[in-house]
Amino acid sequence: MSFLKSFLPPGSSEGLRQQQPDTEAVLNGKGLGTGTLYIAESRLSWLDGSGLGFSLEYPTISLHAVSRDLNAYPREHLYVMVNAKIGEESKESVADEEEEDSDDDVEPIAEFRFVPSDKSALEAMFTAMCECQALHPDPEDEDSDDYDGEEYDVEAHEQGQGDIPTFYTYEEGLSHLTAEGQATLERLEGMLSQSVGSQYNMAGVRTEESIRDYEDYSENTNHSINKDYEKLI
């Protein structure tokens, strides 16, 4: 495959943690041959017997796990998912995929399977992968806890420094009404007076039940009007 290249395997200077010979590499279901897997702190690399291979950068690796499900794959292996498009493709297939991938939300994914001849080495391979992956945290995860808003400095405000938000009581708020607000307030009070009077002054008769209803209605209506007052301030 065209993406296979010749390069020197990672050594101790790159923090080599695990070197696993006689390991088959499989990309998206296609076998690449048998070679040596190098799990280093700097990168994950695989080279076949001829010196051709590939390297994967840890920030592109979204998932790695030991797969023992023989229904998914006939041999136990180290499964690695990469957020990238890797492999050789024909011009026709590339053109087709460009149309299909026009949506920016679609992220390319490549699936690697590393199958060692000695399956007892899988735990060591997985542990080495975890240790190396931890050295390359996702910068988006680090920034996720950042708070962009302004912090409220209690000590500064207690000392009279900084901008303190202004709150008014109901009576103080009325004194801050503009001329337009005062006119609207008078109109609301007139509407309230007409509404209550027409509902409860029926032929000049008031019963104890109507008085209780009037008090309940008045309380609810005043609560609603108070909200309108607050909008005027």
Text of the CATH class of the domain at 13-88 and 107-135: Mainly Beta
The tally of beta strands, per DSSP, is 8
**Distance separating the two termini:** 72 Å
- Mean pLDDT, as a whole number? 75
CATH architecture of the domain at 13-88 and 107-135: Roll
Low-confidence stretches: 89-97, 199-207
Number of helices: 7
Radius of gyration: 36 Å
Q: Kindly identify the CATH topology of the domain at 13-88 and 107-135.
A: PH-domain like
Strand content: 15-25%
Region (Disordered): 1-22, 135-160
Protein name: Methylosome subunit pICln
Subcellular location: Cytoplasm, Cytoskeleton; Cytoplasm, Cytosol; Nucleus
GO biological process, one term: spliceosomal snRNP assembly
